[in-house]
């Protein structure tokens, strides 16, 4: 069962993807909700708002930190910002699950949202998937131990470090399941 952080943002569309790949889900609003989850999704939304809500709930923050030691966490867009080591904005909490530096809104404002194909490579998987960039962050720097999982126009748009994945855009809004499968399903269950 995969937890989906449901404080703010587009957690619904992630639930749709989990259903599509036959994984059970659980909405996570408190630290108690983290018990018995096998992974967590931090969705897109507004990283400052999610931060404010998290800062009001220290035990949830502690619980997420603890979970990250053992279970995979997937962050998209605002979720990636929160998972980064730095995002150069003190209003945002950085869990530092991914040793990367991100910059918020670097792909432009809401009106500059766009659809694109990104290339995902992981082991024997190499596949183009459709995504939406919505006020997306850029990944400015990736440090040692961080693998590039996807690129778009030669820029890194998704990364993997150990069991954790962060992606700057939204595959879940275009019904793409590959990133969720890589994060939460065994390699051999993915056929592409
Ligand atoms: N720009 C938002 C932020 O900085 C992220 C946008 C998104 O999640 N689609 O939090």
Q: What's the layout of helices and strands?
A:
Layout: E1 2-5, H1 11-20, E2 25-28, E3 39-42, H2 47-55, H3 58-68, E4 73-76, H4 78-83, E5 84-86, E6 98-103, E7 114-122, E8 125-133, E9 138-142, E10 147-152, E11 155-161, E12 164-167, H5 178-184
Parallel strand pairs: 1-2, 1-3, 3-4, 4-12, 5-6
Antiparallel strand pairs: 6-9, 7-8, 7-10, 10-11, 11-12
The structure holds glutamine.
Which structural class do the helices and strands define? alpha/beta
Number of helices: 5
Number of domains: 1
Which segments are poorly predicted (pLDDT under 50) over 5 or more consecutive residues? Answer: none
Shape: globular
CATH domain topology: Rossmann fold
CATH superfamily: Class I glutamine amidotransferase (GATase) domain
**Helix percentage:** 10-25%
Q: Under the CATH scheme, which architecture would be assigned?
A: 3-Layer(aba) Sandwich
Distance between the termini: 24 Å
Task: Give the spatial strand order of the biggest sheet.
Answer: 2-1-3-4-12-11-10-7-8
Tell me about the biggest sheet? 9 strands, mixed
CATH class: Alpha Beta
Rg measurement, Å: 15 Å
| Helix and strand pattern | EHEEHHEHEEEEEEEEH
